[in-house]
Every structure is written in structure tokens, then in C-alpha cells.
Amino acid sequence: MKFIEAFREGDKVNDVYLCKYKQMATAKNGKAYENVILQDKTGTIDAKIWDPNSSGIGEFDAMDYVFVTGDVTSFQGTLQMSIKRVRKADESEYVAADYLPVSEKNIDEMYGALMQYMKLVENPYLQKLIQMYFVDNEAFIEAFKKHSAAKTVHHSFVGGLLEHTLGVVRLCVFYVEQYPYLNRDLLLTAALFHDVGKLKEISNFPENDYTDDGQLLGHIVMGSELVGFGCRHIKNFPKRLISELQHCILAHHGELEFGSPKKPALAEAMALNYADNTDAKLETMKEILKGAGEGHEWIGFNRLFESNLRRSTQL
Q1: Tens digits of per-residue pLDDT, 69-118?
Q2: Among the CATH numbers 3.40.50.2300, 3.20.20.70, 2.40.50.140, 2.40.110.20, which is that of 4-98?
Q3: Are 220 and 250 in contact (CB under 8 A)?
């Protein structure tokens, strides 16, 4: 099959993809069309069915594997597909593993590196908390390794939560070296746990969508609750340390309008916010550049960054 990462403007496509999203919409001229997102293990592409009533457009739903015939075009610097024909695929026409986006990095090696960093944590109570979840709980470990870090924006692939967490931890290790007054044990533990709520906020692949609790509570609150639960099951865990650790998690998005119930009040919470934002934004930029394909210096206006984006010169 031809994977989405290899698509180029002008390509003709005849292959099977996972329909991640499907919704009817109306154009400015009043004509109905359908928005579709197609996915394989290398990424996603926005697609349009401009004539949903055409005889070549079969019945299918989101999360179906579909055989698609279409043209790859470019809109505002981003590739998309115009679907001409589509039908639900037979099971014999695809291998499910080809449609799950997976980290380019080795998952077991990343987890090993993450645990090596956690050996830097000397506080016995924080070390017990880390051991409780990341060493002794096999079900938690397996879920953490496979989960994504987001629905679409960044690290939305198998191993994405692990890759993002490792990236944040590495930045926090640098911050501690640069600013020794930071409480290393608190910051590294908070970095390890900052997004664990996403295990409950986002469903497993191939859905990778928000759960009911994800919509109602969000990963920040659920992550803080998980940490609080673990701390309360460790005898004599200092109450002040629990509050500081939970505060770092509750404040890691930095601003109330970005979903944090609290703004950072501790230096460690501030450092965690910067590390999380840096890793998320630079990964998002990487994915935008990758999705735009080759041959475009100016990619176009991006609403997330509120800027007209351009590739840097390659010498």
C-alpha cells in the first residue's frame, strides 16, 4: 500500500485506509459534502467527498476500513484528498497493524531511559510512588507504553504518551542542572506523572478519542487524583509533599484558559509547564512540517500557532 507520509500533490490513490472521522457539512453555496479523516500508521490526511450522493460513494462509518479512490491536492499548504469513490473494505484487503500510527522510536528503549532518569529521585516517598505505578503495576506499564499523548495535536500515536513524557523529563533534568535551586525530586516525579490522566482521558487505538470522563473531568484532574490515591497508600507520605506534587500536575498547562485549574505557584510547577509546552509545541511543528510534504517553503497560516509558517533553509 501507499502510506500517507509518502503522499504528494497530484498523486492518484487506490488503497485501503482507516476512516478516523466522518461528518456531513455544507459549503458556502449550500451544497452538502462530507469531511473525512483517513489514517494509517504513518499519519492522517483530511479528505473531502464533494458529491456524497454519487453512485461511487458507498455506505461507511467512522472507524471503518475503507477502500478509497481519490486525488491528493494541496490547500493552504497542507495536503488533502478529494475522494472520488469509496466503499467499506473487506477484512481480507487490509492488515490492521498498518493503520495504527506508532512512534518512530523504540518503545522499550524509551521506557528504559525514562526509568534511568527516575533513579535520580532520592526522596523515599516519591521513589515508592514511582515504583508503585511504573515498576510494580504491569497493567499500568503496558497501557502507558502504548497510549497516545493527544487525540490529534501532538504525539497522537502508539507510544506517544511515553515519548512525550520522556521529552518532558529530559528538559526538566536540564532545568535542574541550569537552575540548581529547583527541587529535583519533586520536578522529575511531577514530570513523570504529569500526563498519566490521559490513560483515562483518551481511549485506546484505533479510536484514540475522548472518553466520557475525558470530556467531563480532563486528564489534569484525573492525573492529580491518581497521584493523590497512590500517595495516600504510602504510609506516612508527607501531606505537604502530596500537595506540592499535585499542584505541579494541576498547574502544568500554565494558564486557566489552557485547562489548568491552578496557575503555577511553585518554581517546579513553572518549570514543568515550560517543559511540557516546549515538547508539545516543537513536536506539533515537526508533524506540521512532515504533513506538508516536500517542495513547500511557506506552509501557510496555522491557527494553532497563529502564524504563517515557513521551513528553515537547509544548507
Answers
A1: 999 998 877 899 999 999 999 989 988 878 887 888 899 999 999 999 99
A2: 2.40.50.140
A3: yes
